[in-house]
TrEMBL record:
GO MF annotations in UniProt: acyltransferase activity, transferring groups other than amino-acyl groups
Keyword Protein transport: no
Keywords: Acyltransferase, Transferase
Protein name from the UniProt record: Acetyltransferase (GNAT) family protein
PANTHER family: AMINOALKYLPHOSPHONATE N-ACETYLTRANSFERASE-RELATED (PTHR43877:SF2), AMINOALKYLPHOSPHONATE N-ACETYLTRANSFERASE-RELATED-RELATED (PTHR43877)
CDD domains the UniProt entry points to: NAT_SF (cd04301)
Transferase is among the record's keywords: yes
UniProt domain N-acetyltransferase: residue ranges: 117-250
Length: 250
């Protein structure tokens, strides 16, 4: 598979795994709206250049996000046409933090060891998990309902893994299985639990659960400046496939 084909596949998997509450299809572009929860679900993603003038499509996108009460935001991946980047530069859109899409083959025989924590693996998110995740993040109150609705909208199998210590939330992660791939999302360790290797244990158990569910590969998205996460993922075999960046006016 070529690098471009793998990029397109992972983009499709990402769009399915993390949906939007509303979507407009415009000549190869997806305009996604979710009341402000998460960048992916509140930005324009380009799957192809299309045939219509870029400036005209940017005008329509800006109008659509204004109607939704959201700032116009564009997610620039290797699939985005160069003339879009030039148009956003002309309009004064700023470059935000670079993000990496990484992938790995799930190694056979992953065997998580006992560590004294209570581990839960569920196919739907329990109310206490959502509440604990929101408190540990912390999640703005206005985003709690959109997040729940986004999770309900995922149309492929999901795995919610969480760790607890005497009833206290330690950490959690979401796995989304699709076409032989496991997308890793929402990895979070409670602030007071960090520095104990919980994120690596979360990843090991989630990948093992994915392998049990029949997937062979995994992918994730991580901020380019998140050194601790990058180090953990590198030790587990994840390598960068491509990069993307949000563009938004100040």
């Amino acid at each position: 598979m070529s690098a471009n084909d793998l990029c397109r596949l992972l983009e499709e998997l990402c769009l399915t795994a993390w949906p939007a509450l509303k979507t407009i299809h415009d000549d190869g572009w997806l305009l996604r709206f979710s009341e402000g929860h998460s960048g992916r679900s509140n930005s324009v993603t380009c799957l192809s250049a299309g045939v219509l003038p870029v400036a005209e499509k940017v005008d329509r996108a800006e109008a659509a996000y204004t109607r939704e009460g959201l700032p116009p935001r564009f997610r620039i991946t290797p699939l985005a046409p160069p003339d879009l980047t030039a148009e956003l530069d002309r309009r004064g859109y700023l470059r935000q933090e670079e993000n990496l899409v990484q992938a790995a083959t799930i190694p056979p025989g992953l065997a998580p060891t006992a560590d004294g924590l209570d581990w839960r693996l569920e196919t739907t998110p329990a109310p206490d998990l959502l509440a604990s995740y929101a408190a540990a993040l912390p999640l703005p109150a206005r985003e709690a309902d959109p997040m729940r609705r986004l999770l309900d909208a995922i149309a492929v199998p999901t795995l919610y893994l969480s760790a607890w210590d005497g009833g206290r939330y330690v950490g959690s992660a979401l796995g989304v299985a699709d076409r032989g791939w496991l997308g890793v999302y929402k990895v979070l360790v409670a602030p007071e639990q960090r520095g104990r290797g919980v994120s690596r244990r979360l990843m090991t158990r989630l990948l093992a659960a994915g392998a049990d569910a029949g997937v062979a590969h995994a992918y994730l998205q991580v901020g380019g400046a998140n050194r601790p996460a990058l180090a953990t993922y590198a030790r587990m075999g994840f390598r960068t496939v491509y990069r993307y960046q949000y563009r938004q006016k100040d």
